[in-house]
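In keeping with the milestone schedule agreed at the kick-off meeting, the structural modelling team has produced records for the first pair of proteins. Each record is given below as a sequence line and a structure-token line. The laboratory manager (R.T.) confirmed that both were archived under the project's standard naming scheme.
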Amino acid sequence: MPKGPTKRRPQTTARLLEAALDTFAERGFHGASIEEICERAGYTRGAFYSNFRTKEALFLALFDLHAQSVVDRLTQAVDALAELPEDADPVRAVLTRVSTVDEAERRWYLLSTEFTLHAIRRPEAARALAEHDGRLRAEVAGLLGRLFDRLGRRPTVDLDTLARLTTAVHEGSLAQSLVEPDRLAPEELAVTFLPPLFDAVSEKRRTRRARGSRGET
């Protein structure tokens, strides 16, 4: 039978992650200490180091949790395309569905931006962040492929690169919105410009009949 500490580990990890997210939100990544996170979670430093090697590793675990929530929202939005009326813009519908930015999302954006700057200054942290970001981007690229399938279109560019561009538009738009919330909605740029961009980087799939007819001429 598993020992008690082994069975309690998921609960300990979850409490440390929750405490870290709250502490990071209040004090920032650099301002938050491991001691403060442990105190908020009700654990000792020993419990922290039995779950996470560094504060950076703790952030990356939070990154993976947030990434999964992003993938879940995008998946639901793509799946919901089957319910749209024929005259609706599918790309705009997906972007609108996932564009809600509440206080929790705002806090995460501030934290992730701070950690990105931290990683840019530290090559080891940059490599770790790039690895986790790459896994999220692979999921997003796969969902873009599903979206093009639903649109009856074939992408003419690399989906990984398109996922990078889509993320850049989203994050850049959000940054400008947080600076000027009265002038720019969080996803206004993405909802306005990504639909025509997706048309420009894809082409309609040809049917078998069309390909056969072309071969006969």
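The second protein of the pair:
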Amino acid sequence: MYMVFDIGGTFVKYAILDRSGNIFIQGKFPTPQQSLDELLLEMFSTIERYEEYEVKGISICCPGVVDSYQGVVYYGGCLTYLHEVNLKQKFIEKFKLPVSIENDGKAAALAELWRGGVNQSKHAVILVLGSAIGGGIVIDGKLHRGQHFSAGEVSYMVGDPTDQPGIFKMCGFDACAPKMINDIAEANGLSPDTDGRIVFEYIKKENAASWSIFTEYCHKIAKMIVSLQYILDPERFIICGGISTQSLVCEQIMKEVEQIYKKNPMYLLMPVIENSTLNNDANLYGALYHFFEEYIEKADEYAEHNAILCPNCSTELIQSEQKAV
């Protein structure tokens, strides 16, 4: 059994899975917003609560640029306290188990490669619509991490100008799901902490204010997709993230793309946009896949780094897993 965490801006989701990706335990808790110590306390206690499952490894995905060799997180998206934290080291020191760390967008891409709609595609872009916009790029059937582990960080694409000369918004933080939901809640006199599923009941064409906010959100994502289509030329885009369970999201993004093409006839390569079939579990599956990738498929590549961090916890796992595969 393996304990997997998906650290998001709003919730930390966790699950216990076997090597085939079957989920046995699943839950979540609110993401601590103030300090790393609070986050670690919650995650450590979650692992300890399920010690009867005899977890053999821990895998984590989180926002930010992640050095998946060393286990260090940079910037951490909206969770700024993750900057320059070696999460891998902290969990190894605590539990003396193999640990892997991956960026959440890349985890979603790995999940789609393993269990989703990308396993038959050579080139694809995965977009995770959440507190920012996570991204994963698949080239020639493999996840592309880039020279500095930042490939797919679509949130940092240059967006609309701000009121300050020369200062631009970053696309992924300007077009984030919580902001859209909060704006719609405010427009309808709802509490800021209203469940997003309730807010979606207000997104109707006859509700002009809500519909305008929603379509503007979809339009911003559509612009990103059009740019990425011409930069990367993928076979398909896969939309993931909690908000993607609302079928209206993918449908409206596609309509916004079509409007861009209609008004700009120089664009000819129409993107193929699909909803993920993995829904909210994508990052959990992908984080686990990365664990196997690190400790089994690419064990030699990671060996030097793992030997430094956890000299006694890699060999036994690798040998037992290779026998089981």
